[in-house]
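Supplementary notes for students who missed Thursday's class. We covered one full example, reproduced here. Read the sequence, then the structure, then the short commentary at the end.
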Amino acid sequence: MYKKLLQKIDQHIEKVHRRNPRAFVCKSGCADCCVGGISVWRIEYENIREYLKLSTVSFHPSAKKDKCPFLNDEDLCSIYPARPIVCRLWGAPILFGPGEEPLPNVDEISKRITSDKGVLTCCNKNYTEDSSLKKIKADDIINLDLVLSTLAAINHVYCKELGFDPTERFKLSR
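Structure (token representation):
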């Protein structure tokens, strides 16, 4: 179920990119959003561990302070195929529900619009003047509540089947 969720997210973001090619400025090598301190659910953690076991990637944690430990010296993600959902979503237009706060400490790398529906946010490099967040189509917006509740449910089932605590989070640096 987790792999299907990843596939669905990737397909959606690819579709948004195709429909809005000028809206996305961030590209491979841009590491502004690759911040340190990110934590993931067990299912994502295990997916990364499995990827590292099976890949030829030689992993050396990033020495860059306040950056993701999987960021390599060329500012590329060394676990890109197994990156967590938060990494897959960042940059695209994400809707946080009413009363929810977007991720902490991302003001300098994000822009946002607040409405009665919640907070719409994305990377500050994307959706500039000619492709403003205000002009985005509703079906291009990712409902973060839906994605995260789906991920939490999948993680819960996974953990319960294996006898793990489904509320445990893992720092990527771990």
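Commentary. The chain is about 30% helix and 15% strand. The radius of gyration is 16 Å. If anything here is unclear, bring it to office hours.
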